[in-house]
Structures are given as C-alpha cells and as structure tokens.
Amino acid sequence: MTSVVPAISGTQWSIESGGARAVVVEVGGTLRHFSVGDTQVLDGFEADELSPASSGQILAPWPNRIRDGKYTFEGESHQLPLTEPARHNAIHGLANWSRWTLVEQAADTVTLEYELPAQIGYPWWLTLRTRWSVSADGLRCDQEVVNNSGGNAPWGYSVHPYVQLAGVAVDDILLHVPGKTRIQADNRLLPIGYVPVAGTEYDFTQPRKIGDLVMDVSFGEIEHDASGLTEVTIADPGSDRKVVVWADGKCKYWQIFTGDTLHGERFRRSVAIEPMTCPPDSFRTGRDLTVLAPGERWATSWGIRG
Fold first, then answer.
1. Is 298 helix (H, G, I), strand (E, B) or coil?
2. What gap in Å lies between CA 225 and CA 254, rounded to an integer?
3. How far apart are CA 210 and CA 233, in angstroms?
4. Short-list 141, 158, 201, CA closest to 15
5. Labelling 42: which of 13, 14, 16, 83 has CA 20 to 30 A away?
6. What is the CATH number of domain 2-305?
C-alpha cells in the first residue's frame, strides 16, 4: 500500500510478504525500513527524517569517493561538485537526493525509476530502475541502468544499508567478510594501496568479533560461491541469529563501516555493509570501472536475509 501523507523523504511505498516488510521512499529511491516479523533488520530512519549518514541510499553513478571530484575519461577532463567538502571529495554519486518515480507496484514489489540528466561533471544521460521485493527469503533489490547517451559512460554502483542485531553491541558482533585484501586509505579515505588481510586485525575471512576495531574499510579480492554470489554476515555469538547481506558477481568489493563518526544514538549502533562494483576513486584510477556503451543495459542484484 502506498502512503501519500506528506513526509520529508517523500512518498512512502510499503511492501510485505512472508513476514518480511520493507518501505522505500521517493527521495533517493531509498530503502528506509526492512523488518522480519517484529525484528528490525535495517537500522533505518523515520519518514520525516533526512536519511542519516546515507542510510539505505543508492550510490550511483559512482560509489564512495572521487579525489577532488576530478577525473579524466576517454581523454576528457571533468569536475564534479565537492559533496564532501571537509575532505575535498565528491561522494556517493548523483542520485541519492533526487525524487524517483513509481513504475509499478504490487503487494510484495515496487519498482522505481530515476532519469539522471547529463550535467556538468557527468555529461551522460542514464535511466536507473530499481525493483525492490520481499518474501520469506528476505529482501531483494534488482538494479538496472541504461546509457541513453551517444557515447560511452563511466559507471559504478553501491548501496548503503545499515544492518543490526537487536540487543547485540557492535563490539560483540561476529563478522564474516570474504575479502582477501584491504584497501589502505589516506586521511581522506581514498586508496593508497592494497594489502592482504591474512594475519591482521582486518582478517574476517573466518567469523570473529569486531571488538573495538574502528572500520570504514574497503575489502577486495572477495570470494563468490558456485552460484556467483558473495555474502557478508553479522551474527550473535550468544544465539543462532544472523543477518546476511548478499550480492551477485558484479559486486567485487565490500565496504564495512562501524559508524564511529556518527553522532548521538547512531554512534556505533549498527554496521553499514555495502556491496560495491568498484573501489573508491575508480573514476580516476579506472580500477574495475564499468564502461556503459551507448544504449547498453546493465544489471546487478543484491539483498538481505535476516
């Protein structure tokens, strides 16, 4: 059912099936709520609240950060707005505060679309379409993009869900990240190198407690199973409760953020688990950057089980 009551995050679309319920909002096409039964899986936000710390947002046409907002693509230089001015970066893309439109809706699914216009800094016209669905298997997101431009377009994608285990502090969570390397970052959270995690405090290839480790870390060389999926898990050491964030083979990196720079009640309350198709600063480095040909349609899928 669609709620049309005025809210700062725009129209609210609620979907429900198999005990799972999600709410997606107009501003940013953002995932605001996800629960299973009476359990809040997503650390979301209220309808009349701005999405805090990018909670539930879609990050496109690039995830994470671009140094100085400057990059060169196919011989042309571009300058993006500095949306993280304190660090002099362009952050989290161009779609997260725009109004998305409803394409279709059923009791258990909703599909939203956003036309990203060509603009200074990113002169390519894209159509983004997101299909959200819920079932007894959890939440699923199917993301598509089409390049409507006459030339190739650089592209990267991520999402920013914060997940939680009610009653379990972040320090006590058992975390499993199937990533063999970690991106070393400077004080602007931009890549300066790639190092193995084996034998270090960032080795979560086997589940272990987060403890007091402060994390805003990109993991690479991630493992995918025989079906092509990769999974990050948070688990309760005192029970069999867990939350799994999964993604398909298009997602080659995981970003894990323990919320240490957040304020008030949100400080270190949940863990942001972000599947990324490319690492930070890929518009500059070209590392694992997707290039969309004119007219090309690209798709990926990810989801949450809890």
1. strand
2. 15
3. 12
4. 141
5. 83
6. 2.70.98.10
| 3-class secondary-structure state, position 85 | helix
Cis peptide before 63 (omega within 30 of 0): no
Angle at 216 between CA 212 and CA 218, to 5 degrees: 125
Please work out, in degrees rounded to the nearest 5, the angle formed at the alpha carbon of residue 254 by the alpha carbons of 251 and 258.
150
* Tokens found for residue 216: 């805003």
Which of 139, 172, 190 has the alpha carbon at shortest distance from 238? 172
Quote the distance between the C-alpha of residue 286 and its chain's center: 20
Round to whole Å and give the CA distance between 115 and 95. Answer: 9
Closest to 221 measured CA to CA, from 177, 286, 191: 177
119-165: per-residue pLDDT in tens?
999 999 999 999 999 999 999 999 999 999 999 999 999 999 999 99
* pLDDT tens digits, 72-126: 999 999 999 999 999 999 999 999 999 999 999 999 999 999 999 999 999 999 9
Angstrom distance (rounded) from CA 253 to CA 256: 10
pTM of the model: 0.95
Report strand pairing: 158-159 vs 58-59: antiparallel
293, 159, 110, 129: CA torsion to nearest 10: -10
Percent of residues in the chain assigned helix, strand, coil, to nearest 5: 5, 50, 45
